Structure formats: structure tokens, C-alpha cells
Amino acid sequence: MRDADPKPIRLVDYRPPDWLVDTVDLDIGLHPTATVIRARLGMRPNPAGREGAPIVLDGDELVLKSLALDGETLAGNAYSVTPSSLTLLAPPQRALTLEIETLLDPSANTKLMGLYRSSGTYCTQCEAEGFRRITYFPDRPDVLAVYTTRIEAEREEAPVLLGNGNKVEEGELPGTTRHFAVWHDPWPKPCYLFALVGGRLDRVGDRFVTATGRDVELGIYVEPGKAARAGYAMDALKRSMRWDEEAFGCEYDLDVFNIVAVADFNMGAMENKGLNIFNDKYVLASPETATDNDYASIEGIIAHEYFHNWTGNRITCRDWFQLCLKEGLTVFRDQEFSADQRSRPVKRIIDVRLLKAYQFTEDAGPLAHPVRPATYREINNFYTATVYEKGAEVVRMLKTLLGSEGFRNGMDLYFERHDGQAATIEDFLACFADATGTDLAQFALWYAQSGTPQLAITGEWNPAERSYRLDVEQSVPPTPGQPDKQPMVIPLALGLVGPSGEDLPLTLADGTSPAGGVLTVDAPRHSFVFRDVAERPVPSLNRGFAAPVRLASNLSSDDLVFLARHDRDPFNRFEAVQTLALGYLIEATQAVRSGRNLPEPAALIAAMGASLADPALDPAFVGQVLTVPSESDIAREIGRDVDPDAVYAARATLRRAVGTALAEPLAGAFERFAAPGPYSPDAASAGRRTLRNTCLSLLAEAGAGEGVARALGLYRAADNMTDRLQSLMTLCHHAPGQRAEVLADFYERFRDDPLVLDKWFGIQSQIPEPGTLDRVRELTGHPAFSLRNPNRVRALIGSFATGNPTQFNRADGAGYDFLADTVLGLDGSNPQLAARLLGALKSWRVLEEGRRGKAEAALRRIAGTAGLSPDVSDIVTRSLA
Ligand code: 0A1
Ligand code: ZN
């Protein structure tokens, strides 16, 4: 048991470990309720640690059976055990061997940290602090050891036994029903990368020959009967392995690479050395059961975990404050991989949408924290959009500022200098500074200052002087613990678009041109003057969303319409439409609240219509242009006194107006982009489906173009889950009369398929109407619902709380009460999951007064409950601070 209100851990207090572990030999006897772990640790005092220090090992919910030092059982007074530690009070100050025997009950492990069972399969999750639930150990990422793991189990129960590294031995135990396997991982690693799996699993095998000719055996293990669904993941794995060699010079370094898919997993997946363990949602796919988005996620997450082999495993983090060192960098790498495999502009649009939805929202609320936090109480709560997504944006900015070559040189130096080490953000930045001769001291603020920087930009053309002036002002808003901010280094990528749509040359007053069209903004205020500007240009600002900032400019709605048609930067063509839409939606929301007539969205509709009519555009891109900002995007931009019902009404009105005004071209596109052949998950085919389904949903919202009839037709004829699910969603939202029938049909088709049933739960919880909360409550009693499966909980309750703003934010507060009850009900069994669900309340302060009071009351009720986990306690405390 851990303390619910532990002292904060601070980055400034970092000290190197007093003792090092060079080797770990594990002997694991798997048993459903009484697994025995024998650990032999080869330890020695750390020359960089305190002299004469005791050996302090972490532990959590362990039963200690025996303890020996150099083969001698230790007397009871030589050590002390607490619920969270084992201390050898006065160990000899020399290399020594500790032998520790612990006893675990994997079947009772509902936290899904340490060794647990998922559908009978034994598996582990050790990041961040789960290894201490297997044996007593210095559970910190800067203790790197070489592991040898012997796993023993009933052959019948666990014919497959997997560990890190390469398998070095296996066999039967004569005269018993048990067998064993021994795995050896030659690469020193921190314990959070340890993993083992034992179970009855089917295997999909393949091989990969690396750039230097090493033959690697690839295996993906899934529940029996599901091997046919692992083909896409295997293909994505091989493409990832090749890409990492080509893009970063990173080659795989073991003879085996295994992936295991399990149904019960708190997160997406885990990069354990040579043995990635995945939430099966991110492995299993077939056209009938997985959507295009599922395929894209599988590709991205397979790549992400694989890329960790170099950025995370070969070079790991010194401490958990440096989490973004591996996560931000690896997200950047998986984003680049997907961009290369798919459409780069569309990938960027999708990533920026997610960044704004999750990270900008987080950064604007009480849970805001720097990309590298300076303090934490519960590290599990820092696997956040800020660490991951903003962390990736910071790496992207580094590349923008240093150029492709400078960036690659910096990465090469990083791999060369820090291979085998546990590194810091300072180490990382020093590689880029040294490789390119750039001072990155101010840039490092991106890791330390939280909050989304704002750029206010005013542009003015001076016809008499044939010049164009841009006045740029930056500010960073106050965030928890950081009232005052210093100016950041912001790469401002821009173009001046001339009347004919061509970029004008960018020549500054001194005759120089900003390299790559990127200005460096590093002071609170700048004036940039461009010369030889004969005609009035429209500035295209923050092209490619090169900097993760909020932008306010004096661009008119005509300017935005112009950019939507002419900007050569596809991201900004998209962004121009989004900016127009947001402007409209904010105004319309105010109009709804004050009972005024809604404004006319004519310019916006014209811009959308032009995209739809342009045959040169990628359908996937047009689909993005036609997708108006979400209710939470609108709420975030409004920023205070938000009434979710008014936001919903404004958005629905806009969508109806678009669906009505563009009924004909939308229906035309729906017909034109029908699939030419059988389903294929490739990006081009997926893009066509995105566009068709977006058209369909706008038509149905407007009651135009026979939208509902088309949706019903699509549902019935669908040969793939993308069309089936999208049409089902459209029908559930816009055809209440048909809803029960199609939901029942869907259930009957997929009742035995957990991943598809999750979609069935999720769709119902997101219907924006007053009966939904009752339906969600009722569904918690459905035989297929279980609080034990995180995917199921997220599908029903997570998507209600984050994907149904009007019903979660019901004016009577019932949505908040329901969430609070669920969080409290889950906290005992799975605190990580409970804390994540509670994150849905992080934007409570932007709500209008009535709802704000009700949300606060729900949070206070949680805060006042005795026996909270550190996970929930941390989130609720920060949310209320
Ligand atoms: N390192 C993983 C994320 C992860 C973190 C904690 C976990 O514990 C349940 C699981 C996974 C990644 O970035 O993919
Ligand atoms: Zn990761």
C-alpha cells in the first residue's frame, strides 16, 4: 500500500542511486494465485552515490518469503520491511549478491501493474513503477542491469513463455506437467522495460533482415483464433523497422522481436525490450471489425513502440521527470513515419486537431504542467498530452529551427554519445547545440514553461514604400505555479501570398531572406519589414503549424477565404476554414445564449464549397475541411462562462446550414467517391471514405439529400467497419426512429467480439439527447459491461464524459455525479483508470456558473472521500487548486 498523499517528488532533489544493479537473474514459477519470484541481484556500491549507504529497495503489495546475502539467509535485524520498501541497514560496501523470494497473486491484481492475468494469460506492466510489484528492487530508470529470466509454468495453461531478449533454453520438467523457458537480454535496461508473458496464444510469424544483414524473427501473439487479424500489425512492424533504418539510421539489435496482444491493458501499448505488450485494440484488425482510424492507430502505435527501441530503450531516461525525452521524441518519430506512409498534410491536420483538443485544453486548465514537470506526486498521471504531444511539437520545432541536416546531425550525435545511458533533456539539447553550433538555452524554456504561447500578429502593407510590416507580440499565459513567464523561441513559418495566389519573395529590409521562410521570434515584440512588396499580400502565418501556439491576427474573413483557396501550404488552407468556422461558432454561440438571430455563414460555406468542388484536392483533405471544430474546441476558444447547450446549438445550426446549402455537391461527392472495389485500409481509400461519411453526416444533419436514407443504405450494404460504424452513428444521431433497430442489428452481428462491442457501447453513450445518461447507467448493468476491462470502461463511460458535452454537462449536474460515482467505484480496483476518467472534469472552470458549481461539488465529494488512491487524490487536488 502506498501513501494517498505522498510528498511531492522534485526534479531538483535528484540524486544518483547509492547502489547499482549489474545483473538480475529471475526464476519465476507461474501460478494463478501463488506465483513465486526468486530474484538474484548482482549489486555494487555506486561510486557516484553516498558512501556507506544502506540498500533501499522499493516494493508494493509484496509478500517476502526469504532474503539472503551472498548465499547466507539474513537475520531479521539486518533488514527492515515496510509496505513500500525493503532496507538492508548496514550492507558490506562491496559487490554482493542479494537473493530475494517473493510471492504474488496475479489473479488478484486488478490494478494491471506488475504481474497480472488478462483472459487467463500471464502478462506484466512495469512502467512506470510496476516492477516493484514483482520483486524488491531499486525501481528507478537510472539503474540499468542485464536480465536473465527463467519462466516456469504448467504446459497446459501456458504453452507459450516469452521474455525480454533472446530465448537461450527451454524444456520440460521431467515427471511433472510443467515446462520452462530461459530468456537472456544482453542490453542493460531499467526495470520498467522488463516483461514476461505466459499463456495459450496463437502466433503469427515473419522475419526481417536488417540493413546490415541480421536476421530477425518476428512474432505477434494473440488470443486463440485471432491470428488472421494480426496481419496488418505485422506489415506495419516491418515497415517501421525499415523506416527507422532509413530515416534515423536505427537498426534492430536482437534476434527476436515479439509483440503480445492482451485484452486488459491500462494504456495503448508498452515498449518492453524485445517483447512489446499491446492493448489488443492496437493490434487486431480486419475490414469487418476495424475502422480506418483503427488501422491508422495500429500503424502509428506499432511504430511508436518499435521506435522506442532506440529512443527509450537503448537511450533511456535518467528519472521520470525526463519522460518527454523518450515520449515526445518517439511521438515525433511515429508522426513522421505515418506522414511518410500516408498523406503528410492530412497527417499534420489530424495531429494538430488532436494537439488542440487534448493538449491545448490541458494547458489551459488546472492540470497544466511543463513538458518536463518539475514536481509530481504520482508519475502515472504524467503520461499526458503535454508530455507526449507537446513534447513531440518541441522536437518538431527543433527540426524547423535547425533544418533537416542539422537535426539529423544532432540525432546522430545523441545516439552516439548516449547509447546505453539514462539521459536528460539537457543531454539531448546539448547534442543539437554541439552538432550545429546553436545556443539552445532559451529554446529549453519549451520544456520548463507550461501554457500555450500566444502570438498576436498585425500585418500592414505600405503601397507607397512597397513594403509589408508584420508586428508580432508574444505572451505566455500564467499557469499553475508559474505566474510569470519569459519569452520563448518561436519559429514563425510564413509566406506572403500575392493576389494571384503565388508566394511573393520574402526579403527583409536588410536584404536577407529568412531561411526556409521561418522567422525566429524570441523577444516579447518584433517588427519584421519585408521590402519589394508591390501588391497587397495576404500573410499565411504559422504554416504547417510549425509552432504549437495560439494565433490572433488582423486577417479579415475575406483574407481567410482567399487563403482557403490559394495558400500553397495545405495546412493553412485547412486552418483558414477552421478559423472562419470558429469565428462564426463563437459569435453564433453568443447569439444563441442571448436569443439573437444567428449570423449568416456565407463566406464559410463558400470556402467549404470551393474545396468540395476542387478536383485537384485529396478527398481526405476535403473531408478535414468539411469537419467543423468540435464542441470542446469551441468551448476552449470561448474560454469562460461556457454553456454547452448553446455551443451544441450553434454547431448544429452551422452543420445544418452547410448540409442545406451544399446539399447537391455533398450528395454528388457521396456518390462519386463510392469504393471502386473491395475494402482496403490504405490512406487513399480511407480518405475517400472519410469524405463520403462526412458528406453523409452533414446531409443527415440538414435532413437534405436523402441523408438518412443513404445512411441506412450504407449501413445495410457495408462491407467494412468504417462505413458501418459511421452510418450507424449518423442514424443514431439523426434518425431516432431507426435507432433501436440498427443498434440491435449491430449487437447481434458483433456480440462475441469485444473490440466491436466497445464501439457499440461508445456510440450509445455519445448520443446528444437527454435520455442518454439513463441509457449509459442502464448499460453499466449489461451482461457485457465490466469495470475490470479498461477498454470497456473507456468505451462507455470515458466516451460519455469526453465525447458527449451536452449530456455529461447536464445542467442538473447528474453527469458529474455519475462520473464521480464511477471514479470512486473504480478507485479501489484500478486507480490509474479511475484517475484518467476523472481528467474529464479538468475544464470545469470554463463552465457557466450553474454547471461550474455542480462540477465543483462533484470534485469536492471525491476529495472528501477517505482512502483515495494517490492517483485520484493527485488529480482531484490539482483540479481544485
Ligand atoms: N511507454 C508507453 C506508455 C505506457 C505507460 C504506462 C503504462 O502503464 C500502464 C503503459 C504504457 C508508451 O509510450 O507507449
Ligand atoms: Zn511511448
UniProtKB/TrEMBL annotation:
Residues 451-552 form the Peptidase M1 alanyl aminopeptidase Ig-like fold domain. It catalyses: Release of an N-terminal amino acid, Xaa-|-Yaa- from a peptide, amide or arylamide. Xaa is preferably Ala, but may be most amino acids including Pro (slow action). When a terminal hydrophobic residue is followed by a prolyl residue, the two may be released as an intact Xaa-Pro dipeptide. GO terms for molecular function: alanyl aminopeptidase activity. Residues 232-443 form the Peptidase M1 membrane alanine aminopeptidase domain. It is an enzyme of class 3 (hydrolase). Residues 90-193 form the Aminopeptidase N-like N-terminal domain. It comes from the Bacteria. The keyword Cell inner membrane does not apply. Its cofactor is Zn(2+). The keyword Hydrolase applies. InterPro entries: Aminopeptidase_N-like_N, Aminopeptidase_N-like_N_sf, PepN_Ig-like_sf, Peptidase_M1, Peptidase_M1_dom, Peptidase_M1_pepN, Peptidase_M1_pepN_C, Peptidase_M1_pepN_C_sf. Belongs to the peptidase M1 family. This is Aminopeptidase N. It comes from Ancylobacter oerskovii.
